[in-house]
Amino acid sequence: MSAYQNEIKALAALKEKNGSAWSAINPEYAARMRIQNRFKTGLDVAKYTAAIMRKDMAEYDADSSVYTQSLGCWHGFIGQQKLISIKKHLKTTDKKYLYLSGWMVAALRSDFGPLPDQSMHEKTAVSSLIEELYTFLRQADARELDLLFSALDDARNAGDKAKEQEILKQIDGFETHVVPIIADIDAGFGNAEATYLLARKMIEAGACCIQIENQVSDEKQCGHQDGKVTVPHEDFLAKINAVRYAFLELGVDDGVIVARTDSLGAGLTKQIAVTRQEGDLGDKYNAFLDCEEISPAEMKNGDVVLNRNGKLLRPKRLASGLFQFRKGTGEDRCVLDCITSLQNGADLLWIETEKPHIGQIKGMVDRIREAIPNAKLVYNNSPSFNWTLNFRQQVFDTWAAEGKDVAKYDRAKLMSVEYDETELALEADARIRTFQRDAAAQAGIFHHLITLPTYHTAALSTDNLAKGYFAEEGMLAYVKGVQRQEIRQSIACVKHQNMAGSDIGDNHKEYFAGEAALKAGGKDNTMNQFH
């Protein structure tokens, strides 16, 4: 007997136990509603998806070709359509996640309106978006199962036993749209207690994986902007601990923490670290400060001075009160950040880089793996990179170093359309195409994400529609560019009433009221034009 039939049997027994008062309850309808609502709470989601991530991490350790991927989604509908598309084209959601970008929450989900990525938006907007994403993914489950249940009824009414068994098999083997979310908590939105409180809200909403960065919370900047300020390791580790405690309190024992370091692009610190003995973490952090040696007589009022190996060192301090690191120390600080984070509770790393260069990433990961052999990264395939120019310049530099003639190319102008069909451009595109696979194999990248792709796709598609609709094309711009493509590519939301739950609602009406139900999906429903 199938799992579906077992559920019906269990509910039939429950109905019988409750006697005639439940005479109107159909056990099969109740079973359908249960199956359509597999995840009752956000914690159910978090526990289920945490197990998926842990399995995927172990599989990557054994075989780097099985890396994972995600796209950043700023609305539940966008996340839902992404997963529906993945299931349609790839037949499985395996190794496919969602990414929740703090940048997009700030830019698109704040009551203040569009904001820069500086932790100025409402902190609860983050947990609210997690809940919204999973609400839409669960609705995608309900919709797809509802279509299967309707098909099952049709097969039974037609007396097609073979078709009935085929559909029952699909129901039992149904793969949920619910997948892990890697959720951005920025720098924690305050002190360690504030970090814990927000992490708990995010986990309750369904997050199994939280990404936190080592910037100063009240000075936080986008990873691809200037002016980033980092905190000493002890401050950052306290926030990692806060997130772990939130997971443990809520029973998500295998929750995943991603420790992000912005040290590569951060030249400033707000604090001089506390150091208790030579060579401890605080001392290592302070060793990167840009200092000048002075004598006691040279000390001025208000000077901050370090004593190292019997020498007095005055860190260089800016008018803002911030201290600066020595130039050229970014990679060394990144490596120390990563090793320290993994040794103190983090599970995965995120190194924010200024360009997508496998050699650069590999160089740091190789050093980290000397201390932590299974260290692995979540990597931002960022829209802030000019991928075309970066990779064309990488090919140019490789060819030049190999002695290949590059005289016909102007390195500074390689973005130009005139180079699009050249050998160099084609080689660059080939490297972009395999970047994720190559970086997973060579540079320890377990998860590839694009932080804000759907921000850009929404703008691009809207521009294309507006350009034609408000000009000579008129309605043809929508019909040719949107609806016709939806029909021909079998985009589910071409039947937008169905996508919004109309058919599910009709079926529920029949469950609740039988033949007296007033349905919306009759012969006059214009959605029938899309059969």
From TrEMBL:
Keywords: Lyase, Magnesium, Metal-binding. The keyword tRNA-binding does not apply. Can also use Mn(2+) ion. GO terms for biological process: carboxylic acid metabolic process. It comes from Azotobacter vinelandii (strain DJ / ATCC BAA-1303). The active site is at 222 (proton acceptor). GO terms for molecular function: isocitrate lyase activity; metal ion binding. This is Isocitrate lyase.
